[in-house]
Design goal:
Helices cover 44% and strands 20% of the residues. The protein has ten helices and eleven strands.
């Protein structure tokens, strides 16, 4: 899944990763120290929910001392840690761990969820405003449910009901726009829709990247109020007409999925 997209994406990342900026651009004492990839995922996710697109940090989890290690780290951020349509890093200085992560394009689901949470729709495009109105209707129904699980279950089911399998790969299919306006989505579109609706409903949801039976694939995680985290793969549940991957634990996920499980805090 997404094979052609991934090939082009990786080439883009490798080109962008060759950019090196001067050490003076980042003051080591003024940016947070990140101790693990799980902490980095949380740091970037929290910033994205505030509309932040540039993240300065010192990575203390391991020494990334050459371009090959940097390119691997860059790829992990783009595919596993903070999946987005266009993520790249600028390496500040080899060996110091200082980085700038820039999300130069984010999902429309992020824009809509942030607008909803801030009660400010002025910066939405016309199409995102349309998506916003659709999403609000779904969220209003979801919020009639009293438990986190039932809210998530309603959102999961509503996406499955509204989305048909994509016919041709295109950029819209990879977003909540394709899923909820066009009714066609790839896995990124399902993931964007679940993320958007979950955040708007007050659920602690995130995105996760990885592979399903060897093909690139994207889904979500949800952390419940008791601190336990589960995976949600709306794409596969819809495709197989099941709920096997709704609130799936690691034992269920590992049968078909591979990912950087260590970036998911408290995965059951």
């Amino acid at each position: 899944m997404l094979k052609r997209f991934i090939v082009a994406f990786v080439v883009c990342l490798l080109v962008l990763s060759s950019q090196i900026v001067s050490a003076a651009d980042v003051n080591r004492d003024s940016v947070p120290g990140i101790n693990s990839k799980a902490q980095l995922a949380t740091y970037i996710e929290n910033g994205r929910r505030r509309g932040q697109t540039e993240f300065h940090f010192v990575f203390l989890g391991e020494n990334i001392s050459n371009k090959a290690e940097f390119d691997d780290f860059n790829f992990e951020i783009a595919q596993y840690i903070a999946p987005a349509p266009n993520v790249h890093l600028n390496l500040v200085r080899y060996g110091t761990g200082q980085f700038i992560c820039k999300i130069t394009k984010d999902f429309p689901g992020n824009h809509v969820a942030n607008a909803y949470r801030s009660d400010d729709t002025n910066n939405l495009t016309a199409e995102e405003a349309n998506l916003y109105n659709i999403a609000v209707g779904i969220v209003n129904e979801a919020n009639k449910r009293t438990s986190e699980v039932e809210k998530a279950r309603y959102i999961h089911g509503e996406i499955c009901k509204r989305v048909k399998k994509y016919q041709n790969e295109n950029e819209r299919d990879k977003t909540a726009v394709g899923a909820l306006i066009d009714g066609y989505a790839q896995c990124q579109g399902y993931s964007d829709a679940f993320y958007m609706l979950g955040v708007m409903s007050g659920l602690n949801v995130k995105r996760i990247g990885g592979q399903f039976d060897g093909g690139w694939h994207f889904g979500n995680t949800i952390t419940l109020s008791d601190g336990r985290t589960y995976c949600v793969d709306v794409t596969m549940d819809d495709g197989y007409n099941t709920d096997e991957w709704f609130l799936a634990n690691y034992e269920v996920m590992k049968r078909h999925h591979t990912s950087k499980w260590e970036v998911i805090t408290n995965l059951q």
